[in-house]
Write a structure and sequence with these properties.
- Pfam families: Na_H_antiporter.
- Helices cover 76% and strands 0% of the residues.
- Helix 2 packs across helix 19, helix 3 runs parallel beside helix 18 and helix 9 runs antiparallel to helix 11.
- With 493 residues, the protein is mainly α.
- It has 25 helices and no strands.
- The protein is globular.
- The protein has a domain of 249 residues.
Length: 493
């Protein structure tokens, strides 16, 4: 009897011990305060890094900072939140794989930028653009041109990497500060990216929430049109008040441009052909690659002198313009700096930074800290206005924490889907708010994939252009304002 009782007690004790052991490995839910700790640490470390290294921070210091904060997340997750390492490993792998195609596009954009510059495509666009666009209307025209191109292509990245680079050159030649020009380019490019039916973000935001695409786009016009209108007004006023380069200096710049490159309308075949490929919905990787090859061919035909300056071998010079750094001497110092290219090699620091940012986003998600941040905002919901404000704030915070706009769009929609359904608000309100907050603000975060890419392509630091991206700044605010007013029109239903 005693033996049986001892056996039962031992088995019961073993079950309790096993239960305690299993419970010990259950994940803990992080508090909102704990969830914000890695982000606060990241911001502090990045500020210190930028102050110490300046523009050289992207060469490795910022990457080390992201990895260090990622390690901090893992430390908290494993020691305090009982999250196993396998969860972190899976999340990081998933995050990095999700941007693999974007990394390839980024490399090709570097090749495109080098080929378009050395072949004379960008110099030709700048030369003709300076004849057509008057400085007083340049900023507003830049925003409008990028908006139309992005609307037709559905891609802010392609718009900025092509026409954006040319407009950047025109703006610098006319004497505008880099921040103003980059802000106008980005404002216009992300307007089109946000409402174009060809845009991946537009399709993702509507499709993931079961909202019909054009119904989603029509509803976004309520916030998007006022936002871009205000941005255009600001750029128009700025263009009339900012002092620009004197006519004599512009003439000197254009003479140097004409003297260095063979400016000919035949080079416009390259952007026209690129536009045709985009209109035919050719995949971005294929479009950028073919456009690069066409530009190289045009360079071999029209810019033989420029290529010879890079290297006596035409083949070697053409290859170097695609993958490496090139410098062409001109009679104008500003033009010499403008036409210098870095090719694919110039994108390696950015790619390294994106991979490190994806590691940080993966550790934040695996540890449950992303959920801790969103739960804080969900608890603040008291009505339509607070619901939209919470959604917008969460979207922006996810852009900061996860650093990839596609993941942020999906997460924001999934987190608030049930809340909107429970409160009897339409899904299109959620899809619109998600785009207002996530799609357009991703480019404002220095370590976000969009922020890093556009900063590299335009050659302007994210913190430099951020204050001038008026459309991107106004959009999430406008989303909350329209929700507070409750404005509706039958056309948008």
């Amino acid at each position: 009897m005693n033996t049986m009782e001892n056996h039962k007690e031992g088995r019961k004790s073993g079950q309790v011990t096993a239960k305690h052991a299993a419970t010990a490995h259950l994940k803990k839910r992080p508090s909102a305060l704990l969830s914000f700790t890695p982000i606060a640490l990241l911001v502090v470390m990045l500020v210190a890094t930028i102050r110490a290294f300046g523009s050289d921070s992207l060469a490795g210091a910022s990457q080390v900072t992201l990895i260090a904060v990622s390690a901090f997340c893992v430390l908290i997750g494993m020691d305090y939140l009982n999250v196993p390492w396998s969860s972190f490993e899976k999340a990081i792998t998933k995050n990095v794989s999700s941007v693999s195609s974007a990394l390839i596009i980024l490399l090709l954009i570097g090749a495109l930028g080098g080929a378009w510059m050395v072949s004379g495509v960008v110099p030709t666009l700048i030369y003709y653009g300076m004849h057509i666009i008057h400085p007083s209307v340049f900023l507003a025209s830049t925003c409008l041109i990028c908006a139309l191109v992005s609307l037709m292509t559905g891609s802010s990245w392609t718009t900025i990497a092509t026409i954006g680079i040319a407009l950047m050159g025109i703006g610098r030649a006319q004497g505008f500060a880099d921040g103003w020009v980059a802000g106008a380019i980005i404002s216009g490019a992300y307007f089109g990216d946000k409402i174009s039916p060809l845009s991946e973000t537009t399709t993702l935001a509507s499709g993931s929430l079961g909202v019909q695409l054009f119904r989603h786009i029509r509803y976004m016009l309520l916030t998007t049109v006022p936002s871009i209108t205000l941005a255009l007004i600001i750029f128009a006023v700025a263009g009339l008040t900012i002092d620009t380069t004197e006519t004599q200096e512009l003439a000197s710049f254009m003479a140097a441009l004409d003297g260095r490159f063979n400016i000919t309308p035949w080079l416009l075949i390259v952007p026209v052909a690129t536009g045709v490929l985009i209109a035919r919905k050719t995949p971005p990787i294929v479009t950028i690659f073919l456009s690069t090859l066409l530009a190289v061919a045009c360079g071999l035909i029209f810019q033989r002198e420029a290529l010879a300056e890079i290297d006596p071998s035409m083949f070697k010079a053409a290859m170097m313009s695609v993958y490496g750094e090139t410098t062409l001497s001109t009679s104008n110092q500003m033009l010499t700096e403008l036409v210098s290219t870095r090719g694919m090699a110039g994108m390696t620091d950015t790619i390294w930074l994106i991979i490190c940012a994806m590691c940080f986003g993966g550790t934040m998600a695996a540890s449950g800290m992303v959920g801790g941040i969103t739960r804080l905002f969900i608890h603040m919901v008291k009505g339509r206005t607070s619901l939209v404000a919470s959604t917008a704030t969460t979207g922006v915070m996810l852009n900061v924490a996860i650093a990839d706009q596609y993941l942020c769009i999906l997460l924001t929609g999934n987190m608030f889907r049930d809340v909107y359904d429970r409160e009897n608000y339409e899904r299109r309100l959620l899809s619109r708010t998600t785009e207002d907050a996530v799609t357009v603000t991703s480019v404002l975060v220095p370590w976000n994939t969009c922020g890093m890419t556009q900063s590299t392509v335009l050659g302007v630091a994210t913190t430099t252009y951020l204050p001038y991206c008026f459309f991107n700044i106004i959009s999430p605010i406008m989303s909350v304002v329209v929700a507070a007013i409750g404005y509706k029109m039958s056309f948008f239903k």
